[in-house]
Amino acid sequence: MSANQQTTIDADEIARFSAIADEWWDPSGKFRPLHKFNPVRLHYIKEKVCENFDRDLADPRAFAGLRLLDIGCGGGLLAEPMARLGAEVVGADASSVNVEVARLHAEQSGLAIDYRATTAEALAEAGETFDAVLNMEVVEHVADVSLFIDACSSMVRPGGLMFVATINRTFKARALAIFMAENVLGWLPRGTHDYDKLVRPDELERPLTAAGLEVTDRTGVFYNPLTDRWARSRDMDVNYMVLARRPK
Q: Given CA atoms 185, 188, 192, 193 in this order, what sign does their dihedral have?
């Protein structure tokens, strides 16, 4: 990449996650919140993909024939379930350490996943396209949200989908997702999230729309301490997910 090219990479963020990469698959380790969060986002992804591509929700190989990108894939917590559903999966992460962890775990699990240490803009520049792009818990860690969304959106095929999950920039999110989660409950290492880098829904939807995608669904996600589970909610003040589609 030449010196005058824009990039979405935040070196400090990459270093932070690379330092704890060996804990990706430990459900009680530093990525415990993502393990707890996975069921609700997996159900949402499967439901919306099946709805969009007219697939049977009960089919264990419902994603067969679909090409899917998990951008910012980390250790592969989403990429592996997508592969089990039959999708051809490309998992991309700017951290080569994360990619090696993900690749090793996939091999041990007998899954064929195309993991790459690369960026969204590099994939877009190479002309890669996908039926669905998973952009989950990534935008709050990139250096340029609009550039990142534009690069990801350019890879969505006509009729295809992009899922985005992130944290809203509200005082409620500062209190719950940062102060409580990082400083009180210890769910995440301190400094995992920077309040100023959190993204409001309108800040996310503007670049999606500018890139030619149509926002078709929005949902909040909340944690119930009584059941120790995450569930969808109308409340988008903290965690939320947005679904966008490129018209055919």
A: negative
